[in-house]
Amino acid sequence: MPLYYAYALLFVFYVLLVLEFLIPSGGLVGIAAVVTVISALAVAFAHSTTAGMTLLMIVALSTPLIFLAVIRIWPHTPIGRRILNRRPGQLHSPGPQRTLANGKPLDDIVGAVGVAMTNLLPSGMVKIGGLRLDAVSLGMAIDAGESVIVTKVEAGKIYVRPISEAERLATLAAASGASGPSPPPISPPSLENSPDSFDFDTLDLENPN
């Protein structure tokens, strides 16, 4: 069999190798590429050992280079952007979630008090402001039902630590502005019946009754 058949099969192998990254075939294109390169090597070795070894070295050196080139190009292809959820021209994938289910910024819950819905070992679920949220404990296990406070939000993750009941009440009171009713103002004593204001001229000393 002529040697150019082997090189023709090698070219088909390269095409299939690139298409494997561009077409969602479930691996079928990749299998076809492997079969093609094996056929190319078989034809080359059937022609001569020298031709077979030469083709084998070409495959061994060129395949990693093609892999690297395709991997660099793949995120900018339509299928790569669809899988990575990128828009044209976007360099990075979308960051972690920054808002709650009610639309409020995630950073707004820093300092909020809640309760652990599950054991945090170290991650689990907490309930804060009526919302069930995934959280991570800071350095210690937290049992379900224990009061927690949000210490920080970092990279979309909520970090909590346990708090005492007194600290929980104090935090809730400070958050709600419940400082108790202010005492009524104390009015100064009335001077209406003081000795200085008494009119002694009107006093009837002869008829005390």
UniProtKB/TrEMBL annotation:
It comes from Novipirellula galeiformis. PANTHER family: INNER MEMBRANE PROTEIN YBBJ (PTHR33507), NODULATION COMPETITIVENESS PROTEIN NFED (PTHR33507:SF4). Its main location: membrane. It is found in: Membrane. Residues 1-70 form the SSD domain. Residues 174-209 are annotated as: Disordered. This is SSD domain-containing protein. The keyword Thylakoid does not apply.
